[in-house]
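for the recovery benchmark. tokens below, seq after
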């Protein structure tokens, strides 16, 4: 039984998880030290070296089930990791370099209960986390030194369970992928400290490129690492920016890294950006009735509003459909209860806003035909048709 007594564990909301990952982003991204130039070729060459080193390591070590540890082979009768069917691998690509991440499941985990089916009394449980989910875990790292030695890294160990999001970190990205092979456990707390049992438990082995790659400028740079991990719970569909879209889905496709997908190119990837298209309307508000923002497309151009900088396709960018850089949702020129940024005829004069472009430059905001109202563009002037 995999059981942990977690003392003084606070229940974190998404808000606090978001604050944590933003802090982590700043810590890991900001440095005053100059970094040596590392090329893709350097990373690929190091990946090849790591691969060879790990293969040799697997031939020299085995899993000892009695003490739940990886040990060096001494004598006969031991099954080397290289011949152990329980050692699995998965393909991971980081920085355009292909790696193999290795994992050894000792206990998959039963899955954290969500609810009970009222008809069958069946317990509905969480499945596996995604690489973007925040997790409740503990972790013990070991350095793999060459192919015949390992060393416990006490300074990097996390022995007290806590919520973490590896998705945001620049380093140790392999952990985010590795945890997807495990499930959480069951919270059996009963009027006392929070207690979990039957959670996921195992070992993750990362080539240096998935841990601290060349150029990291830390003590662990270029070293293969092994982690003993425990997974107790995770936040399903973690939403780092609390915009109503799970972080795992803030991408344009399965082959696009969420951490590099930045629709409005403001330097914040969508999963950390509360206004993904920078149109002045928060993503979470770009939908009626708190529904899924991905399903709301006012102008039917196959670009949902939260990614569309001209939501009604009237030729006026959403962010400009308001005076004084205010909230576009509060500007309704014709009083028809449809704000201008969603109204294809802003002044309700029977002429579509995009057609009120007398000079044919594609911008209705610079056309002024009414001499009595020289500062009022035609598309907001019902007297000009």
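predicted aa per position
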């Amino acid at each position: 039984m995999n059981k942990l007594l977690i003392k003084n564990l606070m229940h974190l909301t998404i808000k606090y998880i978001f604050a944590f990952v933003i802090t982590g982003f700043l810590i890991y991204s900001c440095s005053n030290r100059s970094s040596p130039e590392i090329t893709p070729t350097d990373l690929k060459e190091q990946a090849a070296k790591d691969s060879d080193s790990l293969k040799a390591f697997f031939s020299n070590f085995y899993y000892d089930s009695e003490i739940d540890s990886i040990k060096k082979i001494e004598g006969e009768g031991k099954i080397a990791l290289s011949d152990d069917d329980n050692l699995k691998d998965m393909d991971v690509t980081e920085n355009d370099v292909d790696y193999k991440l290795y994992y050894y499941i000792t206990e998959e985990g039963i899955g954290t209960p969500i609810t009970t089916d009222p008809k069958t009394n069946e317990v509905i449980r969480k499945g596996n986390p995604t690489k973007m989910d925040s997790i409740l875990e503990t972790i013990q790292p070991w350095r793999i030194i060459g192919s015949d030695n390992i060393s416990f890294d006490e300074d990097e160990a996390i022995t007290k369970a806590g919520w973490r999001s590896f998705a945001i970190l620049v380093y140790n990205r392999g952990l985010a992928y590795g945890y997807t092979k495990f499930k959480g456990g069951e919270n059996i707390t009963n009027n006392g400290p929070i207690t979990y049992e039957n959670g996921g438990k195992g070992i993750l082995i990362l080539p240096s490129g998935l841990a601290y790659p060349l150029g990291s400028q830390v003590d662990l740079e270029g070293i293969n690492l092994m982690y003993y991990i425990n997974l107790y719970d995770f936040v399903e569909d973690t939403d780092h920016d609390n915009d109503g879209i799970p972080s795992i889905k803030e991408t344009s496709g399965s082959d696009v890294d969420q951490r590099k997908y930045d629709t409005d190119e403001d330097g914040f990837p969508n999963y950390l950006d509360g206004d993904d298209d920078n149109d002045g309307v928060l993503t979470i508000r770009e939908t009626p009735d708190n529904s899924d923002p991905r399903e709301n497309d006012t102008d039917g151009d196959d670009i949902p509003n939260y990614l569309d900088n001209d939501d009604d396709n009237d030729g006026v960018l959403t962010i400009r459909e308001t005076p004084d850089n205010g909230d576009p949702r509060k500007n309704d020129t014709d009083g028809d209860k449809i704000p201008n940024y969603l109204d294809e005829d802003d002044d309700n004069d029977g002429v579509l806003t995009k057609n009120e472009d007398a000079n044919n430059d594609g911008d209705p905001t610079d056309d002024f035909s009414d001499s009595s109202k020289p500062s009022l563009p035609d598309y907001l002037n019902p007297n000009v048709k």
